[in-house]
Structure formats: structure tokens, C-alpha cells
Specification:
The protein is mainly α. Helices cover 74% and strands 0% of the residues.
Length: 86
Amino acid sequence: MTIGKAISTIRKQKKISQKELAGKCGLTVVALSKIERGITVPRHETVEALSIGLNVPMESLLLMALDPEEVGHRRRSLSLNSSLVE
């Protein structure tokens, strides 16, 4: 899932319009629409503003956007690296 799709999913679950969320975050509806459709990738500051506007932790948005296979691979890598340190 992309970060835009995660934003769109949460926005719809919370029954917030694009216009309302864009207004809360200082974005235009066009800019928010492009983010949700994956046409543009939001900057860190924009993701932070969107997480505040959606009332969800920024980490939740980022975790939703991660590919589950990539998450599993990174967890295995972290486990291997931490065992090397011990």
C-alpha cells in the first residue's frame, strides 16, 4: 500500500472529506488528491500534518504504507544484526 492509499483509507474510515482534511492541513484539495492517488509523494512535513489532521500517529500511516514482505525481511535482518552484536 502506498502512503497515499493509507491516507485515503483512514480518511474514508473517519468519514472526512478531502476538502475538510486539506483545509486542516493547509493543502489544496488537488494536492491531497494527487497524494492519495500516488501521483505525488508527500514530504515529511506534509505526512506529519496529515497525521495530525487525521488524528492518527504518523508511524501508523508509515507502517500501513510498508509492504508486508519488506517488513518481514527487515525484521529478520534486524534480528540477525542484533544477534551479531551480542
